[in-house]
Amino acid sequence: MKRKLRNILVVVLLTLPCAEIAVRILGWKPYKNSDYAVEVTPKYWLSGDSLLGFLPNTGSYDITLNDAIHFSVTHDASNRRTIVAPKGEDTVIVFGCSFTYGYGVNDDDIFVNQLQKHFPEQHYINYAVPGYGTAQALIQLQTLIDKGKIPDKAMLVFSEVHPERNALAKSYRQALKIGFSHSNEAVEDIMKNARIPYRVLGSESMKFCEWETLYSHWPGRESFALVHALQTTFQRGMEEEAMVAITAEMLDDFVALCIENKIEPIVVNLDDRKFNDHYPDITKEKTTLIHVGFDFHDPKITLYPHDTHPNIQGHTEISKKIQIALEGAEDE
After folding, report:
1. Per residue in 181-202, is it b (16+ CB within 10 Å) or e — as a string?
2. How many other CB atoms are found less than 10 A from the CB of residue 157?
3. If you compute the radius of gyration of the chain from its CA atoms, what whole number of angstroms results?
4. In this prediction, what percent of the chain has a pLDDT beyond 70?
5. Edge-to-edge, what's the strand order for the sheet holding 90-95?
6. What are phi and psi of 193, to 5 degrees?
7. Residue 84 pLDDT
């Protein structure tokens, strides 16, 4: 018996180095995080939240991104990015992620603020937060309705990065956990109360993932190419079709919730051309549906080469396309 175990151990010890060499020949390397340098003053501009995952902290913050992009953000007492333009009475709540939040540009340059300037008779409120998807938009809208704060219009700004967030795919779990971990040394304390919302296909209720169980590297992933290759392969478990289907269900629910509460729904698709064939019927028939066609690979309208978020010109382009679509919808 001992001899048999010894032989097995010898085989394993010989096989693992060979496997390591093989995957390196195939191009794999040990995992290395792509550093995303973020300096914030004061430090803590986001905190964990048990319902939405995380929320902006109230106050003003100066942010430096990748040692090159400098911008300032202001969050009001309700944890929202400040809109500095004059406001009217008809309320338009805008939901979205970092693109809509305006990550990388100052308060005055965000496309939501530009919309406010163009439509001064309305009151735009920016509920977008970096890292959010349609799941958070649904929760935010339902919370407003439950509190009796029903807006006149609800604008959901959608992007191709949202389906993996809505399903909390393993790829997004990694990006979220590792990204936060490398941007702030106190992240585990800051995010200890965080619960990330997501949905599974066919479910009407939201599920939540605790921060501490969100994601972790397999032992040895940062040292061995074999471990990195195995974990990466394992993480590709959720098909894109399933993530898209989950997102379609969420869009359906968002529009239905608006109609039920006499809110005018607006869906803005920033960049996802693949999603055109997946809109639920209710979204196509009952919604002002706007396709921006933003090119996140165009260096003229993004923060390239330091980041892919829209720059000032990019936000202006998005704003103009939404303006034209909204004015056209009013004329119909």
Report:
1. eeebeebeebbeebbbbbbeee
2. 27
3. 22
4. 88
5. 122-126, 90-95, 153-158, 264-269, 288-291
6. -95, 0
7. 83
Q: Which residue has the higher pLDDT, 85 or 234?
A: 85
Q: Would you state the structure tokens that stand for residue 189, as one six-digit string?
A: 């304390």
What backbone phi and psi angles, to 5 degrees, belong to 155? -105, 115
CA distance 63 to 91: 29
Q: Output the CA–CA distances (angstroms, integers) from residue 233 to 171, 207, 237, in the order listed.
A: 11, 25, 8
Q: Is the pTM of this model over 0.85?
A: yes
| Dist CA 261 CA 115 (whole Å) | 24
Q: What spatial distance separates the first Cα and last Cα of the chain, rounded to whole Å?
A: 83
Question: In 3-state terms, what secondary structure has residue 272?
Answer: coil
pLDDT digit string, tens, across residues 36-69: 678 889 988 899 999 999 999 999 999 998 889 9
Joined tokens for residue 88: 């009217």
**pLDDT for the residue 36:** 66
Pick from 204, 91, 97, 95: nearest CA to 148: 91
Q: Give one DSSP letter per residue of 220-266, joined into a string.
A: TTTT-HHHHHHHHHHHTTS-HHHHHHHHHHHHHHHHHHHHHTT-EEE
Distance CA 320, CA 127 (A): 20
Which amino acid, 288? T
CA distances 148 to 91, 151, 199, Å, are 13, 9, 25
**Domains delineated in the chain:** 38-331 (3.40.50.1110)
Each residue's pLDDT tens digit, 313-327: 999 999 999 999 999
pLDDT per position as a tens digit, 239-260: 788 899 999 999 999 999 999 9
Using a 10 angstrom Cβ sphere, with 0-12 exposed, 13-18 middle and 19 or more buried, the burial of residue 243 is buried
In angstroms, the CA 155 to CA 115 distance is: 12
Distance CA 232, CA 236 (A): 7
Round to whole Å and give the CA distance between 258 and 286: 10
